[in-house]
Design goal:
The structure is a single chain. The protein starts with a helix and ends with a helix. The longest helix is centred in the first third of the chain and has 19 residues. By secondary structure, the protein is of the alpha+beta class. It has 2 domains: 44 residues; 88 residues, no CATH class. 42% of the residues lie in helices and 17% in strands. Helix 1 packs antiparallel against helix 2 and helix 1 runs antiparallel to helix 5.
């Protein structure tokens, strides 16, 4: 059985490769593309973690909070300011075509989800967005920047 730490290591490896390709820093061979895709499938199977897609976004009413959770403000969680504070995050469907975003606030503020939605900080780094809400490339492109 693969433990949670190993799963996170594999996810980080996949994300680093994705970011390097987008930045033009590396080019994968066909064999490497197959390997990376197999890793994605393996992680999805292990975690039974569906990817957010445009079709799923289409079914979420505008303005709805469709996911929420807690994390830590550091590289292992959602690195906003690297304070190690506890964060509460929410994922919100926007008002545009497939528009969505993730907002966070420190847990010690005791903000409810509606207040985080109105006043929280938006997560902007791709690796943290995809870590919080695994999504297809098309859904990621619809993320509100």
């Amino acid at each position: 059985m693969i433990d949670k730490k190993e799963i996170e290591r594999i996810k980080d490896y996949i994300l680093r490769n994705d970011l390097a390709i987008k930045a033009g820093e590396t080019v994968l061979t066909d064999a490497n593309k197959v390997y990376i895709n197999d890793l994605r499938l393996l992680i999805g199977y292990i975690e039974d973690e569906p990817l957010l897609s445009l079709k799923e976004l289409e079914g979420i009413p505008d303005g709805d909070i469709f996911a929420h959770g807690k994390s830590t403000d550091n590289e292992d969680g959602i690195n906003m300011l690297n304070t190690d504070n506890q964060l509460t995050w929410i994922a919100v469907r926007g008002g545009g075509a497939y528009d969505w975003a993730i907002y966070v606030a420190t847990t010690n503020l005791n903000w409810d989800h509606d207040r985080i939605k109105r006043m929280g900080d938006k997560v902007s780094m791709e690796r943290f967005i995809r870590k919080i809400i695994p999504c297809t490339d098309e859904a990621y492109e619809a993320y509100r920047r």
